[in-house]
Automatic annotation (TrEMBL):
It holds the Pfam family DUF5122. Keywords: Signal. This is PKD domain containing protein. Residues 1-27 form the signal peptide. It comes from the Bacteria. It comes from Actinocatenispora sera.
Amino acid sequence: MRRVTMVAAGLFTALLVAALPTAGASAGGGQSTLVSTDPVAWTPNVLDGTVYAVAVVGDEAIVGGDFHRVASADGSIEVTRDGLFAFRLGTGAISTRFAPRPNGTVRALAAGPDGTVYVGGSFTELAGGAHHGLARLSVADGTASPEFTAGIDTGTVFTLAADGPTLYAGGTFGAVGGTARPALARLSGRTGAVDTGFDAAVAQQRSGRLRVSKLALSGTGALAIIGTFTQVGGQSRNQLAVVSASTGAVRGWYTDAYQQQCNESYNSYLRDLDFAPDGASFVVVTTGHQAGPTTMCNAAAKFDLTGAGAHHPVWVNRTGGNTLLSVACTGTAVYVGGHQKWLDNPYGDKSAGAGAVSRPGIGAIDPDTGRALAWNPTHDRGNGVDALVTFPAGSGHPGGLLVGSDTEHMGHEYHARIGAFPLP
């Protein structure tokens, strides 16, 4: 039974749900200006664990991870929320009705149609029923959509993206709903049925378990994926591939940039990717321990999507030996998060090399030049910023950037594990 402490009438609000348009990797998409360096004061605080995923449905933010306790921004109210909760953008009011209680970690979220949210992770139960790794929930009350019956065979769902009536899922599974789809599947967003016409044939992991770690939709018919694979559609594709979003057929686009080994303990050192709002390019961020002016480890790299054949990065921004975990592209900026200390640091090795600029935990890169922008709010480093999600203006707020992590301070203020930088 979920324990709620210090609950007072009127201090929480029920969620107001809006039907959602087509949703890609970022909820807000393009933004014409940088967000402020001063965080909003209204986001709740997550008091333990890690926030791994955030999605936006109307004026509600849904937050997933492995946490258990959530408090209001002023600390006057604390509730138990095992791995999943929702709050209202603009006020921070935590939903009293959205409490699905997954019995495992939530790793992925995506906005669904008609006021719903898709949830992926390592759970086998939530919302009072059996749901193996996948579910679609009503944001209004946290109930599961009974017609959505998708479930994975084993493993974890690590990444989700929704496009109108379609849902894409990636992870360490071998099958969905009894249909073999190693690590990547396209599903009906309504029923969860596997689209048998889509098969990317992801295969041949570098080591460990075959996994699609993250995926992103271009909005122009392409799906980019990163993971442990070395082959997609029978073609050599090392950790990064672009496939048709409708059929899964591997595109002629490829890069050899990630052939090198960064650290033998990583079966994949690519951590996140996101498309620019126009879908013409995308940015990949990495870990890897190694540093240096030629390595692709611990770096953000932009790639053009146009054309077939080999592609080299348009630019690479290196941290000098510290991990980047997340990225969000807005057209104005490429926001990156992790536990980095610096950007513009190709000559550093766990140190500030020539030209390095201090950007602890979070930073912004010029999408054209690949150089760090002046934006520097700072963020506790910890393990790092795992989630960056833009959100558009809504009722009582101007839109901005949501940030999920395992630490407690951003912009020199206390904002535990979830916070937001507003647009001016």
